[in-house]
Amino acid sequence: MSISYLTLLSTFACFLVCMVSKWRKTRQALAEINHFPGERTLFGIASLMGNILPRIPYVTLGRNYSWRTKHRVFERQGSGIYGIASVFPATSYYLLADPAGVKHVSYSHNNFVKDTDEYTILKGFGSNLLVVEGDEWKRQRRIAAPAFSDKNNRLVWDTAKQFVEQMIDTWEPKKSTIVHDVNEDLALPLSLCVISKAGFGQDISVGTDAIPTGHKLTFKDALTTASKTMHLPLMLPNWAWRFRKGWTHAKQAHDELRLYLREMIRARRELKEQQMQDLIEDKYDLFNQLVYARDAKDMLSEDELIGNVFIFLIAGHETTAHTFAIILALMALYPEVQEKLAKQVQELESEHGVLNYSHIHLLTYAIAIVYETLRLFPMVGLMPKKATENTTFTVGFPPFTQTLQVPASTKVLVFSTGLHYDPSYWENPDEFNPDRFMDSHWNRDAFIAFSLGPRACIGRR
To answer: Could you give the CA distance from residue 207 to residue 203 in angstroms, rounded to a whole number?
Structure first.
């Protein structure tokens, strides 16, 4: 028997073993969702190929699946729940767009927790609220939550107002101002300026170009570049940074920003107790409040601080900017909404004078516009949950309910776009209509732009 024949036979045997193993894992994944009706594909919804290829039946769901399908898959199913499974990787999920079911899986006492395995890549920034669960999540949340205070919210308001006024003053002398890309040229820079001052206590709009000793970039350059290249440290191995000039600069910016943050943390924590108290009372920026946040003498470590700062501030500024850019686009498309908003602001100013943070609750139509924008364009389309033990959950409302047996480790994807476009809860769901949120009885269970339960957005006001 020749060596080449043995090699071929061994290769075939290995291939056969791998295929049998893959088949068994795929069958196990299907069993976790009880072979629930839905989509079956070769490549999974979160896989690289699944996000590169267009939709090909039985091969991939395609790019931007949650945006393309919205509520249509649930209409075909005739239910607020749907099953998907794939071979590469061998995994399965329930897609959930039912208010009762979403509420059930959003609370840990119902035997469901956030599936932090889906966020493993974000651990590259350091331990943070997004990637921890259980007692560690409770600890970090308990320490960090007080930093999101009314005083910090007021600082955000005042800072945003200041920068918008500066921007308008710059435009006013000109006959016309052209903004080629609302997001890149307006929303992102404005959001970054607000985040820098209200988040870090640093005014990058007037910052000096001098590079401090021990640094290679200014804080402004490091923050600006790092915020635009958030994804690179999570995707590129260390040896790959040098292959492109832009990547090399991005790597330098991320390293520099971490160095700046460590210096800022140490400088604040080296202050004496009285100096520390004076600084806490004088500066309400989020970074400052997080540095000194503590509970029963427990405080966030340096790495935890940096991890949470990256998630809260640097990642947060991008979602804020995108929402702002979409609102501006919708205002242009719906001038009647713009006029109604202007009318409410003018009426409030005639009654209260110049509006400040204390008047925010009176800006009901502005809040309705934000909510309606987030209903149509939620910044997080899928929220992963996982069963901690064998359990059940029910979808639908009596008398049309369906109870599912759910084994431990079963994965559930809360599908915000599916719920937000459900005509059962939103009349003419494809239409932009802020007035639906002016009704005090709007369906709060069918709106999950900020998530639900204890894992809901910590900064929601």
So the answer is: 6
Q: Which of 227, 222, 201, 200 is nearest to 211 (CA)?
A: 222
Residues 6+ apart with CB under 8 A from 333: 432
Instruction: Centre a 10 Å sphere on the Cβ of residue 131 and count the other Cβ atoms it contains.
Output: 22
CA distances from 450 to 84, 326, 334 (A): 25, 17, 25
Which positions ≥6 away from 31 have C-beta within 8 Å?
407
Q: How far apart are the first and last CA of the chain?
A: 75
Q: Which one-letter amino acid corresponds to residue 91?
A: T
Residues in the chain: 461
The reply to whether 193 sits in an annotated binding site is no
**Which residues, other chains included, contact 235 with Cβ-Cβ below 8 Å and sequence gap of 6+?**
121
Rounded Cα distance, 394 and 409, in Å: 17
Higher pLDDT, 163 or 340: 340
Tokens representing residue 249 in the block:
């600069």
Percent of the chain at pLDDT exceeding 70: 95
pLDDT tens column, 238-283: 888 888 888 999 999 999 999 998 998 888 887 756 566 665 556 6
Q: Quote the distance between the C-alpha of residue 43 and its chain's center.
A: 24
The per-residue pLDDT for 169 is 86
DSSP per-residue letters across 289-343: HHHH-EETTEE--HHHHHHHHIIIIIIHHHHHHHHHHHHHHHHHH-HHHHHHHHH
Sheet with 81-88, side-by-side order of all strands: 38-43, 81-88, 91-96, 411-415, 382-387, 112-114
If 0-12 CB within 10 Å is exposed, 13-18 middle and 19+ buried, where does residue 303 land? middle
Q: Could you report the per-residue pLDDT of 89-130, keeping only the tens digit for each?
A: 999 999 999 999 999 999 888 899 999 888 877 887 889 998
Gap between the Cα atoms of 226 and 66, Å rounded: 28
CA distance 109 to 460: 23
**Coil, helix or strand at residue 157:** helix
Contact 81, 394 (CB under 8 A): no
Tell me the two tokens of residue 167: 């921007």
- pLDDT band at 287; cut points 50, 70, 90: confident
The owner of tokens 């609370």 is 107
CA angle 248, 253, 258 (to 5 degrees): 130
Q: Give pLDDT, residue 358.
A: 95
